[in-house]
Write a structure and sequence with these properties.
By secondary structure, this protein is α/β, with parallel strands linked by helices. It is built from ten helices and six strands. GO terms for molecular function: GTP binding.
Length: 339
């Protein structure tokens, strides 16, 4: 059965969205769907519901990755049912990585247009969330742009008497965080319904949501190699930008150092000029003080000379100034006439 279903898989390239959905003749455009999820979530049953051809995928669990194709709801689809995941939240076993990458290779160059993350409408714990995110990281973070949560066990909603929106709101932080990664894209399947019209209705509604998601993504499928090349190109451009900015920063730093050196030289020149001016002022002040001192000395000498000349004149004329003894008593003397 596995070889037969793989032989039936027929893939084709995805045309631009403007040509696919605006032209009614392109309503049968091929869609590639990748089913991923943990064990015992109804993932293989979901694949059978999508194909509408009975038990194409083995539902007993533990099966390897399988691919099949069919025409359903007026659309030709190819479905790849990946091997179910384990619950390890710390690491991903090597076998699971190989199976997941092999599932991607089954789409050829086209890749999946939508990744359906299958989760039952039961309690979703934080441990389960971490285990899911570990597996999705293998496909890089860009896979979330193409991922839609598909809730199984839709019959539980009727039993509980609630809607899927109420289930998400009351599902706790782990479920809400998962929904945020998927941008709240979700759908509900009831794989147990035996009504043919009900099955076709839920498949048709799912494909309509897939079309809306494709419009958001510009009509492009998910390609691991394409996104890897894009990330490498982004990393290369980012490295070039950082190198250029670093170079400009270095040049600016050199320029700043030169400017600082120039300013230091200017300040040093100004300081030297101020020192020279101060020295000149000091010399002028010293010279002025010396000139004043010389003028004072010269005036004192002049006065002394004048007194000496006066005394000599007095001697010649016979007039002498009164002298005072050391005791302080004044001597009375009469003038004497010279003959």
């Amino acid at each position: 059965m596995r070889d037969e279903t793989q032989a039936q898989l027929h893939l084709c390239a995805f045309s631009p969205l403007s040509q696919v959905f605006k032209d009614p003749r392109n309503r049968s455009q091929h869609l590639n769907i990748l089913l991923v999820g943990p064990r015992r979530t109804g993932k293989s049953s979901t694949g059978n519901t999508l194909l509408g051809r009975g038990q194409v995928f083995e539902t007993r669990g533990g099966g390897a990755t399988t691919a099949a194709s069919a025409t359903t709801a007026g659309r030709h689809i190819s479905v790849v049912d990946t091997q179910a995941w384990g619950l390890s939240e710390d690491f991903v076993p090597r076998e699971e990585k190989i199976e997941l990458l092999r599932a991607m290779s089954l789409f050829g160059l086209g890749g999946p247009h939508v990744v359906l993350l299958v989760i039952p409408l039961t309690d979703f714990t934080d441990s389960e969330r971490r285990a899911v995110e570990r597996r999705m990281e293998i496909l890089t973070s860009t896979v979330w742009r193409h991922t839609m949560v598909l809730f199984t066990c839709g019959d539980l909603l009727r039993r509980r008497g609630c809607t899927v929106e109420e289930h998400i709101q009351l599902g706790g932080p782990a479920l809400r965080r998962l929904m945020e990664k998927c941008r709240y894209r979700y759908h509900v399947f009831n794989n147990k319904t035996a009504v043919l019209g009900e099955q076709e209705k839920q498949v048709r509604e799912l494909l309509s949501k897939v079309e809306n998601m494709l419009q958001e993504n510009g009509g492009w499928h998910f390609s691991l190699h394409m996104y890897q090349r894009m990330e490498e190109e982004w990393s290369r451009r980012e490295l070039e930008l950082r190198t250029r900015l670093a170079a400009e920063t270095d040049v600016g730093g050199v320029r700043t150092k030169q400017e600082q050196s120039f300013k230091a030289e200017e300040e040093e020149k100004k300081c030297c000029l101020r020192t020279r001016e101060d020295n000149k002022m000091n010399r002028w002040e010293d010279e002025e003080e010396k000139a004043i001192e010389l003028m004072t000395l010269s005036s004192e000498e002049s006065s002394e000379r004048g007194e000496e000349r006066k005394e000599s004149t007095d001697r010649k004329t016979g007039m002498s100034a009164p002298s005072w003894p050391k005791g302080g008593q004044r001597l009375v003397c009469s003038p004497r006439r010279l003959a």
